[in-house]
Each structure stands twice: as C-alpha cells, then as structure tokens.
C-alpha cells in the first residue's frame, strides 16, 4: 500500500509542477477494493495533502489492482480563477503510471510517459518520478518522443531518489 500511495503522491507532485496558474490538482483513485478511495491534492506551490480509505487487511506488497479493484482514476483541475475541469478514466493499466498515461491520451490526446519509482533509501521511504510529454505547441516527431521514452526507461530508482547535486559524476562503462 505504501508503494501505491507513494506513486500517487509523486504523480500529483509532477502534475502540479506543470500548472501555469494559481490553483490545484486532485488525483483520486476510487474502486471496489480494500482501498476504496485514495486522494492526493496539491497546489501550484507544491503543497500536498492526502487521505486514503482502507478496510481490512492488505498485504504490504499489494499492487494497484489488488488495492483498488475495479475502479476509476479521477483528475480534477481547479484554477483559483476560471472553470474547474474533471477527467475520469477506468483503471485499466497495471500501474498508476500506465493509468495516467491512458488519461492523457484519452482526455488530452497528449502523448505522455510517466516513470514513477518507490522504495527505500537508508531505511527511509523514498519516491521519485519523471514526466515526459510532447508539448502541444510543438510539432515533435513521434520517433523523437519514443526514442526519449526508451532511453528514460533505463533510469534506476536510485537515480530518481538521489538529488542531482549528490550524484557521482563518474560513470562506469562495461
């Protein structure tokens, strides 16, 4: 359960980082599983809060489908000024990242890849992620996006968890 909640927090953080206005984004999972509701709300200042509703015993390593069951991903964008927008897609992917990629393709027709990792660093929970999107105003070639997404798939969790200034500048090549 910690992994899925960590993924939800990272995803919301990545999405709020794209806001170009004062307001907030709510990312919500709803379903018929033991975790029937999980919600993270974040604003354009990267302030986050969340809640989950859980019933019964849940294995520590439970995946998204086991936790939420049959359900939906709901994303609500609420600008301080202007109209609120809400998009809903079924939880058809095996991971939260796959479900979010599906959301962007269906609701915004925007090729998107999310790389979200959770784990531990020095015995403490850690999570990190990266969001790749084709900019709507750009006429990016699909091959370029696919190539970049393929390269990004090689990123290790430790690389996402470690701040850029703390990484070693030396790489070993076999």
Automatic annotation (TrEMBL):
One of its GO terms (cellular component) is cytoplasm. Pfam families: HSP33. InterPro entries: Heat_shock_Hsp33 (IPR000397), Heat_shock_Hsp33_N (IPR016153), Hsp33_helix_hairpin_bin_dom_sf (IPR023212). Residues 1-22 form the signal peptide. One of its GO terms (molecular function) is unfolded protein binding. The keyword Magnesium does not apply. Transmembrane segments: none annotated. Keywords: Signal, Stress response. One of its GO terms (biological process) is protein refolding. PANTHER family: 33 KDA CHAPERONIN. This is Heat shock protein 33. The gene is hslO_1.
């Amino acid at each position: 359960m910690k992994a899925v909640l960590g993924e939800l927090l990272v995803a919301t953080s990545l999405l709020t980082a794209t806001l170009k206005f004062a307001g907030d984004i709510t990312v919500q999972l709803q379903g018929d599983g033991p975790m029937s509701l999980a919600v993270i709300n974040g604003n354009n200042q990267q302030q986050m809060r969340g809640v989950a509703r859980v019933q019964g015993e849940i294995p520590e390593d439970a995946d998204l489908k086991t936790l939420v069951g049959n359900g939906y991903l709901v994303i609500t964008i609420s600008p301080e000024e202007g109209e609120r927008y809400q998009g809903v897609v079924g939880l058809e992917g095996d991971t939260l990242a796959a479900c979010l990629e599906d959301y962007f393709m269906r609701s915004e027709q925007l090729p998107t890849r999310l790389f979200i990792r959770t784990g531990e660093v020095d015995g403490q929970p850690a999570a990190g992620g990266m969001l790749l999107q084709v900019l709507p105003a750009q006429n990016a070639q699909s091959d370029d996006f696919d190539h970049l997404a393929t390269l990004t798939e090689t990123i290790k969790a430790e690389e996402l968890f470690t701040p850029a200034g703390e990484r070693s500048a030396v790489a070993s090549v076999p």
